[in-house]
Amino acid sequence: MAKYIKREKSKKAKKYLLGIIISFLIILVIALLYQMYIKIDVKEENEGFSAERTVQTVETNENITTVLENTTQCVVGISKLKNTGSTIFLNDGVSQLGLGSGVIITENGYILSNEHVTGEKYSTCYVTLEDGRNYKANVVWSDSNIDLSISKINMTGLPYANLGNSENIRIGQSVYAIGNPIGFEFQRTVTAGIISAVDRTIKIDEEDENGNEITSYMDDLIQTDATINKGNSGGPLINENGEIIGITSVKITSAEGIGFAVPINIIKPIIDKYKTDGKFEEATLGIFAYDKNIIPYIDSNISLDKGIYVAQIVNYSPASKANLKVGDVIEKIDDVELNKMSDLRRYIYQKNPGDKVNLTIYRNKKEYNIEITLGKKS
């Protein structure tokens, strides 16, 4: 009887153990099937994502190509000398004609470029459109401090480039420079790069026509590694949407891959006035001033954390009549804070001669408010 009971217990133990093994195997099989399902599902999703991304990349490349093709139609060649042939785009165009670039900004013939390309206000230059037609252009506005100019040709129905917002640009953003780097053989060359830095200040040493050395400074510049050569000056720097964010201006010749452009927002108020009124009367304070980025080049003893340092006052100007003094620091204009010279320029460009502005200045560790009536820049 005891042996029978023992055998029964042994059978039950074996059944119990077998049940556990079978249950474990079932769970294992279910787990393996689940893992296989997950892998298949993920693989299908990844394959779909990869295909979608490939399509998007192709579409993006096609969009950029179209944007560049459209923008190059707005880029012109500019020379100070009139060519006797059918085009100013000669093989030796740069050396013989001083060939540079420009970009059409209105359908009725306003062209944005550099002052050193077109010449000063009231001078003339010669413009060649994409189709080879030549036109005499009058320089209606220029500013040597920012090396920009606006010229006008008597034409309508022209393709023109759209203006972007240079305040929104970011380091690493893709950009394209368009211009005429050498002459006819390389007209409307497109080079690609990124925004390497913003708000750059550089010192420029040049010689005047008498051989005297002249030092000037340019601030608030966009730095890019897009290739910029001599004939590119005055051409547009555009974003991926084809919008102008800057005008290429200068290049450090001692370093490779470093080019600069003047931000488009500086000159937007002037362009808007030419679009709406067909003219622009420039207002002026009558001062030469520097911001904190330029001061270290001028005088290392001057400490400037904010504002604009007044370095010189033009005789009989609005500033001199209002008793503004050399050494004053202009911190605000009409409650608009000033930290860069471009801040002051952009604000004054929006004003008209005869308008009154209120300056908040810092003098001898005290704050003052001065009201000035803006004059007309000749």
Describe this structure as you would to a colleague.
By secondary structure, the protein is an alpha+beta fold. It folds into four domains: 1-67; 75-152, Thrombin, subunit H (Beta Barrel), CATH 2.40.10.10; 167-269, Thrombin, subunit H, CATH 2.40.10.10; 281-376, Pdz3 Domain, CATH 2.30.42. It has seven helices and 21 strands. Strands 1-2-3-6-5-4 form a six-stranded antiparallel β-barrel. Strands 8-9-10-13-12-11 form a six-stranded antiparallel β-barrel. Strands 15, 16, 17, 18, 19 and 20 form a six-stranded antiparallel beta sheet that branches. Strand 2 and strand 3 (110-113) form a beta hairpin. Mean pLDDT is 81; it is low at 1-6, 40-51, 53-58 and 84-96.
Features:
378 residues, alpha+beta, Thrombin, subunit H, six-stranded antiparallel barrel, 7 helices, 34% strand, extended, disordered N terminus
What oligomeric assembly is this protein in? single chain
Indicate the CATH architecture of the largest domain.
Beta Barrel
Q: Count the strands?
A: 21
CATH topology assignment of the largest domain: Thrombin, subunit H
Major sheet description: 6 strands, antiparallel, barrel
Compute the average pLDDT.
Answer: 81
Low-confidence stretches: 1-6, 40-51, 53-58, 84-96
Radius of gyration: 33 Å
Structural class: alpha+beta
Number of helices: 7
CATH superfamily heading of the largest domain: Trypsin-like serine proteases
Q: How do the helices and strands follow one another from N- to C-terminus?
A: HEHEEHEEEEEEEEEEHEEHEHEEHEEE
Beta-strand fraction estimate: 25-35%
Helix content: 25-40%
Total individual domains? 4
The strand line-up of the biggest sheet is 1-2-3-6-5-4
